[in-house]
Amino acid sequence: PDADAMAAARELQARLTKPAGSLGALEELSVRLAGLAGTCPPPLPEPAAVAVFAGDHGVHAQGVSPWPQEVTAQMVGNFLAGGAVINAFARQAGASVTVVDVGVAAPVGGPAPAFVDAKVRAGTRDLAVEPALTRAEAVAAVETGIRVAGELVDGGARILLTGDMGIANTTPAAALIAAFTGAAAADVTGRGTGIDDATHAHKTAVVAGALARHAPDPADPVGVLAAVGGLEHAALAGFLLGAAARRVPVVVDGVIAASAALAAAALAPDAVAAMVAGHRSAEPGATVALAHLGLDPLLDLGMRLGEGTGAALALPVVAAAVRVLHEVATFDAAGVSEK
Amino acid sequence: PDADAMAAARELQARLTKPAGSLGALEELSVRLAGLAGTCPPPLPEPAAVAVFAGDHGVHAQGVSPWPQEVTAQMVGNFLAGGAVINAFARQAGASVTVVDVGVAAPVGGPAPAFVDAKVRAGTRDLAVEPALTRAEAVAAVETGIRVAGELVDGGARILLTGDMGIANTTPAAALIAAFTGAAAADVTGRGTGIDDATHAHKTAVVAGALARHAPDPADPVGVLAAVGGLEHAALAGFLLGAAARRVPVVVDGVIAASAALAAAALAPDAVAAMVAGHRSAEPGATVALAHLGLDPLLDLGMRLGEGTGAALALPVVAAAVRVLHEVATFDAAGVSEK
Q: ipTM score of the complex?
């Protein structure tokens, strides 16, 4: 982050026609984004682009989700047809939606640029019995994420939003969060799309068992992603790194993105400067991950859908924080007295 | 609220391509708005209109604010010139901004329809020594708010947003909240635009003293508004009533609007059905008031600016909640399997 730009943003906030500090979290956010861009005011974060990374999970065989695995592919179709919640939210926010197949079990496809075929393999292996991915597969997914971020920025995007789709993907997310933060499986394993107590207990045991089996080393982020991660998690880690490398802010959605953010931060700690936590997912692991990263979520609406929906809802808040620095009059210019 | 429309919204939410409940607070909000409109889906809340009611306060003479009273009139000029934070936020959200002078001490003015001259008197009397308003003055301000709401709806607005400007207006807001909820002055008196400990203690004593002097009776809402309120508070109460009468949702901004909402609810309890709490103001009285009304704020960003800024930031969340019912595909239509 550029300290001069951050200081300039703080100084400008103090001269605008409002009591100092009265915009709460938006003021510090504007300072962070100035630091990221290296200029004050930072560019307005528009247009915005959501990338939904989709993948399937071998651990689905353990019965951690009540939903059939085929729903991942069906929802990819729904995204491409514009019928999912993320499509509605993105339309409202004026954001594009790009669906990236990094590992859906079934064949999926659609026209570019809305669809990117980057399937590394047709779903991960079952992390309950073996590593989910080889290191090469994990790296390939990370590289896909980096590439997609770069292509969206090259296409004009000035802010990126993380999205994900993958039945059972909260199980690897919980394992990643436990591995990177040291938290216990019980503290980071949630109910995902909605599971009963017995399934939740079983899912927690699967996460704890995977951690015991693989003993993932947080100092080896690729190894962690390979052992207990998912292809969309790895791709999202790359997407976050790609945004940071381009100094473009990236809104982190829910628990899948938060787990990926831990991997990205482990690979490149400075990447956190580009991350804006969109919302506090109802999944407990998201809160653990964001706290570990030092990120405070903008919204807290009890959402747990994924797809990028929480990031899309937060986008106007991010834009408003920046817009203040562009458009609000100073006390001097407006002829308003100061206290 | 229309129970059939609410049931239809709940049933539709369950058929849309997302796990049940995964949109958290947005789902119940969509149900409430269906009930208000009496139809499912309820109309998309656009276009939106912000009304900023401006007034001054005799209690300013007690030294409850560090800002000079002239700032109220200066900020009205800033609103009309488009330079304030609410202007920036409203432009982003596609909302109009109407400034209503219900009681600014100095002469202010501007071209219609951005400016409405409805000055009841040039600032209230000092509630520390006498009733702030006569009953007739309070009623006139309430009627102005009702009229402005009706005119905005007649002009096409499908959602209204409350805004306020008035140096020292958190002092009458605290008194109103104490009067209507029974809370102690110390629990509802905040730091407004930012005051030091000594001024905060003095402000709290002024509020407590006014409550002791006037003994406002919550069963007589107009009497409460007259004794310890403000002209913008009374007008906002009317604005909320006017929105409810037209079955148009109205986003409640911060502590000034929340205090007015208590008055509106005391006059017509059903009016709460039209209210959406935009954000949790940093002012403690706002939280007390919203809890009393049974309203959960959508955002919690530590903001305390007023002007309608928190309502404007919440507007996309409200729109997104309704948009889901209009645009998201059902499991059947999208060919997505259910669990």
A: 0.97
